[in-house]
Structures are given as C-alpha cells and as structure tokens.
Amino acid sequence: MKQSSLWEHKRVEEDAYLRVRMNNRWTLYDPRLAWMLVAPVLLLLIFFLVLPIAVMAAYTFFTFVTAGVETSALTPANWQEFFTDSYYSGFLLKTLRVGAITALLCGVLGYFPAYFIWATSFRHKWLLLLLLIVPFWISFTIRTFSWINILGEQGVINVALLKMGIINEPLQMLYNEGAVILGLLHFLLPYMILNVYVSLEGIDRTLIAAARSMGCTSAQAFREVTLPLSLPGLAAGLLLCFVLAAGSYVTPQLLGSGRDALFGNLIYDTIMGELNWPMGATLSIVLFVVLGFFAAIYTRYMGMSQIVKGLGG
Amino acid sequence: MSGTRRKEEGRWAWRLTGFVTLCVYIFMFAPIVATVILSFNASMFGGFPMTGFSLQWYAKLMNNDAVLTAFRTSLWIALVTAVATTAIGVVTAFALVRFEFPGKQALSTLVILPALVPETILGVGLLVLIKAIDQPRTMLLLVLGHILLAVPYVVLIAQARMVGIRRVYEEAALSLGASRFSSFREITLPLLIPAVVGGALLAFTISFDNTSASLFWRPAGVETMPTQILSMLKISISPEINALGTVMILVTVGIPLIGGLILQSLTKLKRRGEPKEEVR
C-alpha cells in the first residue's frame, strides 16, 4: 500500500476524473462498496467469533444445575470456584509453564536453522524453505502420533537400544511432560523458523558489510547488527509458539498421561465429559483473557505487523 | 595470531549452525519417515522391528468403512471450505487494499484473530452460542467454522499479492467502459491467481487437518478424518493407523505440490503476452 506522494497526487486527479464517470452518486472507491465487499467476512466474524465469545462471557455467570442443564439465574459461583480451588490455578500455571518452556526451546532451536537458511550460499535455498512448509501440510494428528513410532516401547529408539544391548527393557519415554513438550516443539518449530527467517530476510545486508569493514569480527557483527535486527521476528515467533502451545489439545491427549493434561484438555473434559457448560465457559474465558494479556503486551511493544508477516502475509 | 583465531571461531560457529540446522530437519522428518516405513511392516504389531514388506494394512484400510466415510466427509468439507474461503478472502483482501473506509484497521485486526485464538476457545464459544439459541450442530455449522479458521490465512496471502498489483490496470479498464465486475474478473483476478490458488490449497489443508475445533463442532455421529484417527488411537495403536497416516500425507502433501506445479506451468504459458509486472 506504500505509494509515493507523487503517485498519490496523480491518483487524486484520476479519482476526480473517474468519479465523474461513475455518475456522481458512487465514487470509484466508495466506502459503501467496501462495506458490501467485506460484508460476508464481517458477518462470519461477528457470528462465529465475536458473538460466541460474548455469549460465553455471559455464560460464566449462569448456574450449573446438573450435567447438561443450567439456568440463566446469575451467580458468581463459577468464578468463586475458579479462584478458590487451587486445582484450576494449578492447571493454569502448568499450562503457562509448558507454553513458556516450549516457546523458549523453539526460539533457541529455531534461530539456528533460520540463520542458516538466510546466510547459506547453498543454491537450492528454496528446497530448505519448502521442507519447512511441508509439515504444515501434513495432518497435525498424524505428525503428533508419529512420535509414538519413535519414542514408544516398539519405537525406533527403544528397539535400537535393545538390539545393541545397551538396555534390557524398553525405556518409558512416552506419556510424560517431556513427550508433550517434544510433540509441541515438533509442531511449532516451523512457525518459529519462518518468523525469524522473515525478519532476517528484511535486514539490509550492506549494514553487516559496513560493520565488517569497520573492523567488527563476524561474531561482533552478528551480536551488534544481525541479532538486534532479527529480534522482532524472534519475538513474534515466541508469542505465536507460546499461545499455540498453551492452547493445545491434541498433543497432551496423544503424548501425555492424564497428569500431563493442559488447560485445553481441562476445558474439553469439563464441557464434553462433565457437561458443565458454565464452568467450561469460565475456563475458556480465563484462557482467552490470559493469552490475550500476553498478546496485548506483545502488540504494545511490537505492533501487529510482524505477526501478520509471520502468518504468511 | 588473534585474527586467525577469530576466523577459526567464526568457522566453528558456522559449523555449529549447520549442525543444529541438520538436527532440526532430522527432528522434523524422522517421525514421519518412521510412520511411512512402518506402514509397510508385515508384523502384527504397530512398531519396529520390520519383519517384512507387506501391503496388508492398506488392504485392511480399504475395507474399513468408518475410515472411508470419514475420509469422504473430510474431503467434501475441505473442498467446500476451500472454495468458499477463497471467494470470501479474496474479496475481503481486495476491499482492504483498495478502499479506505471507517473501521478498516479494526477489521484487518479482527480478521486475523481466528488464527491467534486457540481452537479450544473458538470451539467452546460457538458451541455455547448455539446451545444458548437452542440450535443443533449441523454440517453447515462445521463448514462455516472451518471457513472462519481458514479465512485469516487466505486474506493475508491475497492481501500480500494485491498490494503488488497496481490499480491503474483496473482503472484503465474502468475508464475504457468496463463494468466494475468485469474489470475485477478480467484484470484483477488473473493477476491474483497465484494468491487464489495458494489460498485455496492452504484453506483445503487447514480444513482437512482440523482436529480440536472439529471435535466440538461436528454433528453427533459424524467423524472427520482427524477425529476418526484420534478415536482409533484411543482404542489401540494398530499398524493400520500408520497406513492411514501415509495415505493422509500423500493427499495433503501431494495436492499442494501438484497445485504448485500446475501453477508454475500456467504462469509460464501466460508470461508471453503479459506486461512485466512492476515490483513496488
């Protein structure tokens, strides 16, 4: 949308000309037409995003009678239960911890490939990038359960170690928090790498050449120029990984035991298992507000544009 | 002396970067490769070691009615989602790039929210809404939900492409007497084709893959492919799932790759008569 002012000036004249052609009533870029064009998406967002969250917020004050039944008598009981029962706050803290660990590991492990792809002189760079996108095409459920073939009792690692005689009985590597984090890492690393790569790609390479010619070592040039300039991408990746990890449902379900369930699983069980809709709504709103809080801090300092770029814009 | 030592350090740092990169790539693809290999295992159990090559699990899969039904369901949902999302998303991107209107900024933020809000929350929210107004879960609801999940990506892709298309082309058509619709169809849309195809493919895979939200939204008794896999995994890990995984990989990786190839040959064919596009 960036246009030079000269170009903008010419446009005003053209607009004036075209406006006459469009018989006065509707200008060429009439806001009314814009509203008509965005109407479908606006309706979708209102009825499937805004309204549900608003109704859900109202539901948190409804009274739970018995499984699947509630009345609209307003009560603060759900919120009281949430704030007094340490079961819930424990779940929330564990979820945030797992999300933070996952995001940090993604940041550390994702920076190297992003930097490598950006800096390499390898001719088929596109292939490395394509390989990063391919996992997005493969079913998330498939990718998650495929770890069972690696970590499970009959997985690659156990079978190999048994064959070599290093261990006598299979190691228990599945169904613990480590396996959940591993699965999340596997799912989120491409997001992180692409985010960092996008911001590295935006760096003016002559800056680095300048730093080098002024006597910086390559390490200094990296520390003083490349790293600071790539931080927006890293920050966007961290936020994205954190939010997606903390909101995950499938990974803890497949790779974790009951004890490794995260907040998403708690919400699912509360609604689909216990049929306690008001409590389920309360927990959803809690997760929404908490994750929204982190996203708000992020946008306060970084703005939305980096996230937009990272998502494929 | 210190100069050569520094150079040495730089080389080691670069080697380390390359090594970690290699490890990350192996990490990303090892489980997938293991799954594909195991799908051909003759053994009764879903794991290593390989005892021989066999296609029995694929044969078993072809006779599994629940799986075939789920596959067809997912395919239809994904196709409808892809077409509808692309139409909605491209028009939205056109409006967001070309027009100035009040609330534009708010709308462009709102439109990417579905990609950032966890699916569990979106899932519960919609469910609570239809419970509040006493409506059943229907297929239409599931499809519209999938459109919501895919629309941010399509809008972003189309917007990125749209920004690079100069509006003089459309305006030239208008000033020569074309209607708005035909100027969009004849000028804008052809220039947008890469974004249209890319967006449609992405919307297809997002819908075909969707698990968490579909668990909430699917009508009673309906299974999509991912939810079917999830319920199969709850019972036991049979080698059939590895075969199913391989088929899914072929579908979801094959379709975008073929699409990309078609796109490439299309643009090659078209490039002859087309004015060279300016990158601004």
Topology:
The complex is a heterodimer of chains A (313) and B (280).
Chain A: H1 5-21, H2 31-59, E1 63-66, E2 69-71, H3 77-84, H4 86-119, H5 125-137, H6 140-145, H7 148-151, H8 156-163, H9 177-201, H10 205-213, H11 218-246, H12 250-255, H13 263-273, H14 277-302, H15 305-310
Chain B: H1 2-38, H2 56-62, H3 65-98, H4 104-110, H5 113-116, H6 119-132, H7 139-163, H8 167-175, H9 180-209, H10 212-217, H11 225-235, H12 239-270
Helix pairs in contact in B: 2-12, 3-7, 3-9, 7-9, 8-9, 9-12
Task: Write structural notes for this entry.
The complex is a heterodimer of chains A (313) and B (280). Helix content of chain A is 74%, strand content 2%. Chain A has 313 residues and is an all-alpha fold. In chain A, strands 1-2 form a two-stranded antiparallel sheet. In chain A, strand 1 (63-66) and strand 2 form a beta hairpin. The radius of gyration of chain A is 26 Å and the shape is globular. With 280 residues, chain B is mostly helical. The two termini of chain B are 48 Å apart. Chain B is globular, with a radius of gyration of 24 Å. Chains A and B meet through helix 1, helix 2, helix 4, helix 5 and helix 6 of A and helix 1, helix 3, helix 4, helix 5 and helix 6 of B.
Descriptive labels:
heterodimer, A: 313 residues, mainly alpha, two-stranded antiparallel sheet, 74% helix, 2% strand, B: 280 residues, 12 helices, globular, disordered C terminus
In short:
The complex is a heterodimer of chains A (313) and B (280). With 313 residues, chain A is mainly α. Chain A has helices at residues 5-21, 31-59, 77-84, 86-119, 125-137, 140-145, 148-151, 156-163, 177-201, 205-213, 218-246, 250-255, 263-273, 277-302, 305-310, and strands at residues 63-66, 69-71.
Strand content of chain B: under 5%
- Helical proportion of chain B? over 70%
What is the spatial order of strands in the main beta sheet of chain A?
1-2
Spans of at least 5 consecutive residues with low confidence of chain B: 276-280
Helix content of chain A: over 70%
Number of strands of chain A: 2
Give me the strand/helix succession of chain A: HHEEHHHHHHHHHHHHH
Our measurement of the CA-to-CA distance between the termini of chain A, rounded to an integer number of angstroms, reads: 13 Å
Instruction: Report the mean per-residue pLDDT of chain B as an integer.
Output: 86
Which protein chains are joined by the largest interface, and how many residues does each one contribute?
A-B, 101 and 103 residues
SSE ordering of chain B: HHHHHHHHHHHH
Structural class of chain A: mainly alpha
Radius of gyration of chain A, in angstroms, nearest whole number: 26 Å
Structural class of chain B: mainly alpha
Q: Provide a count of the helices of chain B.
A: 12
Radius of gyration of chain B: 24 Å
> What summary fits the major beta sheet of chain A?
2 strands, antiparallel
Shape of chain A: globular
Give the total of beta strands of chain B: 0
Strand content of chain A: under 5%
Calculate the terminal CA-CA distance of chain B, rounded to whole Å.
48 Å
